[in-house]
Automatic annotation (TrEMBL), chain A:
Residues 152-448 form the NADH:quinone oxidoreductase/Mrp antiporter transmembrane domain. NDH-1 is composed of 14 different subunits. Subunits NuoA, H, J, K, L, M, N constitute the membrane sector of the complex. One of its GO terms (cellular component) is plasma membrane. InterPro entries: NADH-Q_OxRdtase_suN/2, ND/Mrp_TM. Its EC number is 7.1.1.-. It is found in: Cell membrane; Endomembrane system; Membrane. This is NADH-quinone oxidoreductase subunit N. NDH-1 shuttles electrons from NADH, via FMN and iron-sulfur (Fe-S) centers, to quinones in the respiratory chain. The immediate electron acceptor for the enzyme in this species is believed to be a menaquinone. Couples the redox reaction to proton translocation (for every two electrons transferred, four hydrogen ions are translocated across the cytoplasmic membrane), and thus conserves the redox energy in a proton gradient. GO terms for molecular function: NADH dehydrogenase (quinone) (non-electrogenic) activity; NADH dehydrogenase (ubiquinone) activity; quinone binding. Belongs to the complex I subunit 2 family. It catalyses: a quinone + NADH + 5 H(+)(in) = a quinol + NAD(+) + 4 H(+)(out). It comes from Blastococcus haudaquaticus. It comes from the Bacteria. It holds the Pfam family Proton_antipo_M.
TrEMBL record, chain B:
This is NADH dehydrogenase subunit M. GO terms for biological process: ATP synthesis coupled electron transport; electron transport coupled proton transport. GO terms for cellular component: endomembrane system; membrane. It comes from Blastococcus haudaquaticus. PANTHER family: NADH-UBIQUINONE OXIDOREDUCTASE CHAIN 4 (PTHR43507:SF1). It is found in: Endomembrane system; Membrane. Keywords: Membrane, Transmembrane, Transmembrane helix. Belongs to the complex I subunit 4 family. Residues 134-425 form the NADH:quinone oxidoreductase/Mrp antiporter transmembrane domain. GO terms for molecular function: NADH dehydrogenase (ubiquinone) activity; NADH dehydrogenase activity; ubiquinone binding. It is a multi-pass membrane protein.
From TrEMBL, chain C:
Pfam families: Oxidored_q2. This is NADH-quinone oxidoreductase subunit K. InterPro entries: NADH_UbQ_OxRdtase_chain4L/K (IPR001133), NUOK/Mnh_C1-like (IPR039428). The keyword Protein transport does not apply. One of its GO terms (cellular component) is NADH dehydrogenase complex.
């Protein structure tokens, strides 16, 4: 006799909301008339993500940690906090997807991905006012996968979630309307390297299964306690971590990041930078502390090393970039290193403030980077977005508001006090120093000083340089954002300031959420 | 009266003023100037009222207030001032209106608005007040770093030809120092967490800690490097001549007059009381840096042909004196050092302003481009002379009192260093008097020379005038009424404090001797 | 124990796949190498299932197959779209995005 698995629908409600919206999105795509499909798809996707956000928040009201779905899902503080973060950031990204006022062709996405780039038909379609709506269900699926990823209590579920979040991302990063070749190339690179990394993750899963006889995180923990140092287990752990570090774009597994960030449509880049980072780090935290918390001697040196490599690579290579999207990609690599500093900051017994600090940092980084990419979509020239640094020269004299908002985000990324970035940095560095990792914190501080230089360079250009192409009257134009982008910018900018000036309540929330079940 | 939130108001008023000025509609420059001046005068009034509310015989920290800010970090928005902070607040209160008055008719680089400049100045004022009034180390750090942003924009947007370079250099130097300090701040928190059971940043609690000497040394270095960059002491000083010379005059006055004092203030407030053992351990090294700085910067100052750079170098030399006074560990010397901080702000501020007025007339920063100005502009030359004499610490000017106190206080403890430092005084006389003599006296020459019949507008310079014209004479306007109004208060202060410094000393001395007690009291 | 042979074979296959991804230039071949890696994992899983006497590993192998199938769909679609533009599936030809 087979017993029905225990299933707490209440605990699963956020996931059901998002996946439900994604499935409805697919049906809409199939049956709704094309002319009026766009608003319907946007509504469905937003209802799904915002519904998920609301339900996660409701779950926290009467909150009980539990493991559900036959032990496959852990609904605990970190899961809910990160799910809410992903749902919120995902909804904001979807708003960026839905922006129709900026591009003269009304959308950042290609009308028909199947038409070869540069063909006569493609040129014809470039100016057509039709918009493509497949991106919404795809993005919703990706958001669902991410939310599943951070709650997975089982390596197999983690793998499935990894694929559910990755596959749609591979597709939508290839759907740019302009510079299609670049976009397609980014998709191919992302796909091949992503599949390569998931194979590593999978092999790690198989080895851990062989070593412990289970893929349940709790079982792995008890088995590793009993079994001690199994070569198979350590090797499996290493492979799992490599797979996850790839997703989190931590150097030296970062090579795809600059290319994909540059090639993908900017709203998608924003989505990846904000949400994928949260999801990947959520999974890393859960894996390392729930399954391997007792064997931390095995991974601590590894994480220590990649944190340093990531910060140094991100900060130093970021200096040489001339394209803003690439620069933000390297900034994302450096920030991955800072986040790992927070991961180090969780003590062996699961105490320490590392978990709360990392989660808070994820939230602040997600909001800030999303805002920065949203500003990038505003500055345009004849061929889409003007992302070359030189095109941003003297922007402040033409549109002071855009420049001011961008400056706010850049200062936050650089970690200047009174912005969210500083609070986050302070939290993770404090966690690391408390655990005695002060050399790491010192490297992190120096890396942030180097990184500050390239953020500063953009501010210098915007404010202190003569306007680009002014003498020929052909500088980039600053688009007037429609409602969706305006909302995104308003929310992210307000949050960046608020989390810098009065971070108390959110920090408190992260602190209270920071206990894993398992 | 003491319960009234004077300090909070002194931060809030300029901050709100900055927002108001920034929000004024475009093209209303005059209104922006008036609002900014009004706000800065209100702050001056608040500073004076604060000084009246301050009881010189009372507690060490007064007018304290504390509100929990970020509970998870144990951070409070805690304000309070001792005598040292009070005199710095007064200095800020005086200098900002003067700077705004002096910048009234500045010619800004293309497309820059006066409105933004004044908004940044007011924001900077709010941050500076915060830095000196904070009694929570975290809060101090926040203001310390956030202060960079307005200064960065002031230099970068409104400065001279190489302003981009200077602004970035300024920002990065300070940021690196600040980040190293951040590590030490967190380290201090961790130590407090292990000793007190809960982490705190409150200065009074941290002062009670008994930190292991090895850890003390590391933490001391963290704070010291940040302050030494800010002050600046010699190996960390290279940003100041660039920033000082490229910043607009108003920015330069505040930069050298107040902002850099945060460094020496930090030595006294944080390095000495929190890390007494480490301070004693490192004192000889710091003294070497200080004395080397005095001489090296003085020599460099003599070699400068650019007036703004020259004044910047003189400041580095003076900062050496201040550091000498602080690290001699006697109450007398340290009191002198604090008084020096105030006096230097006034004297160098005036010197920068006068140099700026001269530059505004001639359009060149080179000493060689001027000569014989005194004959045509006696008031300008007079103000220049007073500022210069105060800068070289002539008896009767304010700087003399402080320099004398520093030297006489340091001598019993550090005779060798003190004697070497005295050489700096002679050099100071040389570089100041040479600059004064070359620009103000001698034959009329340089960019201000113009053909007689022509009636040039002031300030536009005569560099384009035909050099072969047979009859030329100096065309230079003397100080206008606005400029006179700017210069007079500072001149008056220089003389007044030179003759009667006692009120300031009464305020400073208790705070300094409390600091020396924290240090373990070398002299009582 | 003979099961070790299967594990070693799987490891060899995985390595071949991984090296293939790194050295081959044709996107399709690279992709096939990834599939080889996934299948070597399947072999490992089934072997471990046999060794531990549970069927969990076999069930996981099914999961992997399903996911691999989905990956093929997505991957081939992306490679197709770029191939139709460029008439080449070489990774080297895709060089717009260089540092």
């Amino acid at each position: 006799m087979i017993e029905a698995p225990d299933l707490s629908l209440a605990a699963l409600a956020p996931l059901l909301f998002v996946f439900g919206a994604a499935c409805i999105g697919v049906l809409v795509e199939a049956f709704w008339p094309r002319e009026s499909r766009h608003p319907v798809q946007v509504t469905v996707a937003l209802v799904g993500t915002l519904g998920a956000l609301v339900t996660t928040l409701l779950l926290t009201v009467d909150f009980e940690r539990e493991i559900t779905a036959a032990g496959a899902l852990a609904v605990d503080g970190p899961a809910l906090f990160l799910q809410a973060t992903i749902a919120g950031l995902g909804a904001l990204s979807l708003l960026l997807f839905a922006e129709r006022a900026l591009d003269p062709a009304r959308s950042a996405f290609v009308v028909s991905a199947a038409v070869p780039a540069g063909s006569p038909r493609d040129r014809e379609l470039l100016t057509v006012q039709r918009v493509q709506t497949e991106v919404y269900p795809l993005a919703t699926f990706a958001i669902g996968g991410m939310m599943l990823f951070v709650a997975a209590n089982d390596l197999l579920i983690m793998f499935v979630a990894l694929e559910v979040l990755s596959l749609p991302l591979y597709l939508i990063s290839g759907l740019a309307r302009r510079r299609r070749l670049l976009s397609q190339e980014a998709a191919v690179k992302y796909f091949l390297l992503g599949a390569f990394a998931s194979a590593f993750f999978l092999y790690g899963l198989a080895l851990v299964y062989g070593a412990t006889g289970s893929v349940r995180l709790g079982d792995i923990r008890s088995a590793s306690l009993a079994g001690g140092t199994d070569v198979l287990l350590v090797l499996g752990l290493a492979l799992l971590v490599v797979g996850l570090l790839f997703k989190a774009s931590v150097a030296p597994f970062h090579t795809w990041t600059p290319d994909v960030y540059q090639g993908a449509p900017t709203p998608v880049t924003a989505f990846m930078a904000a949400c994928t980072k949260v999801a990947a780090f959520g999974a890393i935290l859960r894996l390392l502390y729930v399954a391997f918390g007792t064997a931390e001697w095995t991974w601590r040196p590894l994480v220590y090393a990649v944190a340093i490599v990531s910060m140094v690579v991100g900060a130093v290579l970021g200096l040489t970039q001339t394209d803003l999207k690439r620069m933000l990609a390297y900034s994302s690599i450096a920030h991955a290193g800072f986040l790992l500093t927070g991961v180090i900051g969780l003590g062996a017994a699961g105490d320490g403030s590392g978990l709360a600090a990392t989660m808070f940092y994820l939230l602040t980084y997600g909001l800030t980077t999303l805002g920065a990419f949203a500003v990038l979509t505003l500055v345009r020239d004849g061929d889409g977005e003007a992302t070359h640094l030189s095109q941003w020269a003297g922007l402040a004299s033409r549109s002071p508001l855009v420049a001011a908002v961008m400056t706010l985000f850049l200062l936050a990324l650089a970690g200047i006090p009174l912005t969210a970035g500083f609070t986050g940095k302070f939290a993770v560095f404090r966690a690391a120093i408390e655990e005695g990792a002060w050399p790491l914190a010192l490297v992190a501080l120096l890396a942030s000083a180097v990184a500050a230089f390239f953020y500063l360079r953009v501010i210098v250009l915007m404010y202190f340089s003569p306007p680009a192409g002014a003498e020929r009257g052909q500088g980039p134009t600053v688009g007037v954002p429609g409602m969706p982008t305006t909302i995104v910018l308003a929310i992210t900018a307000t949050a960046t300031l608020a989390l810098g000036i009065v971070p108390g309540s959110v920090l408190d929330l992260a602190e209270r959420a920071a206990i894993f079940v398992g | 009266m003491t319960d009234f939130p004077w300090l909070l108001l002194m931060i809030a008023v300029p901050a709100v003023g900055a927002a108001v000025v920034a929000a004024l509609p475009k093209g209303r420059d005059l209104l922006a100037k008036q609002v900014a001046l009004g706000v800065s005068l209100v702050v001056l009034l608040l500073a004076v009222l604060t000084a009246i509310a301050f009881d010189t015989g009372g507690d060490r920290f007064q007018l304290t207030s504390s509100v929990t800010w970020i509970e998870d970090f144990g951070v409070s928005f805690a304000l309070g001032i001792d005598g040292i902070a009070l005199v710095m607040l007064l200095l800020i209160g005086v200098l900002v209106p003067v700077v705004i008055g002096a910048s009234w008719n500045d010619e800004l680089p293309e497309q820059r608005s006066m409105k933004a400049y004044f908004a940044w100045l007011l924001l900077l004022e709010a941050m500076m007040v915060g830095v000196f009034a904070a009694t929570d180390v975290f809060l101090f750090y926040v203001f310390f770093e956030a202060m960079l942003v307005p200064m960065y924009f002031i230099i970068g947007s409104f400065g001279g030809p190489r302003r981009q370079y200077a602004a970035v250099k300024f920002f990065l130097y300070s940021l690196v120092g600040g980040l190293i300090m951040l590590a030490a701040v967190i380290g201090l928190y961790v130590v407090s967490n292990s000793q007190l059971g809960e982490g705190t940043f409150a200065f009074d609690a941290l002062r009670q800690l008994d930190i292991d000497p090895g850890v003390q040394k590391l933490l001391f270095l963290g704070f010291f490097i940040a302050f030494a960059i800010k002050a600046p002491l010699v190996p960390f000083h290279t940003w100041l001549p660039d920033s000082g010379s490229e910043a607009p005059i108003g920015g330069a006055v505040l930069l050298v007059g107040v902002l850099d004092k945060v460094g020496t203030f930090g030595f006294l407030r944080y390095c000495l009381p929190l890390f007494p053992d480490a301070s004693r351990f490192f004192a000889p090294f710091v003294l070497v840096l200080a004395v080397v700085g005095i001489l090296y910067a003085a020599l460099l100052a003599m070699g400068q042909s650019d007036m703004k750079r020259l004044v910047s170098y003189t400041s580095i030399s003076h900062f050496g004196f201040i550091a000498l006074g602080i690290f001699a560990f006697t109450t007398e010397a340290a009191t002198g050092a604090v008084l020096y901080m105030v006096n230097h702000g006034i004297a160098t501020g005036l010197l920068f302003l006068v140099v700026g007025m001269l530059i505004a007339r001639g359009g060149s920063r080179q000493i060689g481009d001027y000569g014989g100005v005194a004959a045509k502009a006696p008031l300008l030359a007079g103000a220049f002379l007073v500022a210069g004499l105060a800068s070289l610490a002539l008896p009767g000017t304010n700087s003399f009192v402080s320099e004398f106190l520093v030297l006489i206080g340091s001598f019993p403890e550090e005779p060798v260093f003190t004697i070497i430092a005295t050489v700096g005084i002679i050099l100071a006389a040389l570089y100041i008097l040479l600059m004064y003599q070359r620009t103000m006296h001698g034959p009329a020459r340089g960019v201000l020379l113009q053909e007689d019949p022509a009636e040039p507008a002031p300030g536009t310079g005569g560099a384009t005038a035909v050099l072969t014209a047979p009859r030329r004479s100096l065309r230079v306007l003397d100080l206008s009424r606005r400029e006179l109004a700017v210069v007079t208060p500072l001149v008056a202060l220089i003389i007044a404090l030179g003759v009667y410094p006692q009120p300031l000393l009464d305020v400073i001395e208790p705070a300094v001797s409390a600091t020396m007690d924290d240090l373990g009291g070398i002299d009582q | 124990m003979t099961l070790t042979y299967y594990l070693v074979l799987a490891a060899i296959l995985f390595t071949i796949g991984a090296v293939g991804v790194l050295v081959r230039r044709n996107a399709i071949v690279v992709f096939m190498c990834v599939e080889l890696m996934l299948n070597s994992v399947n072999l490992t899983l089934v072997t471990f299932a046999r060794a531990t006497g549970t069927i969990d590993g076999q069930i996981m192998a099914f999961f992997v197959m399903v996911v691999a199938a989905a990956e093929v769909v997505v991957g081939l679609a992306i490679i197709m779209s770029i191939y139709r533009t460029r008439r080449s599936a070489s990774v080297d030809d895709a060089n717009l995005l260089k540092y």
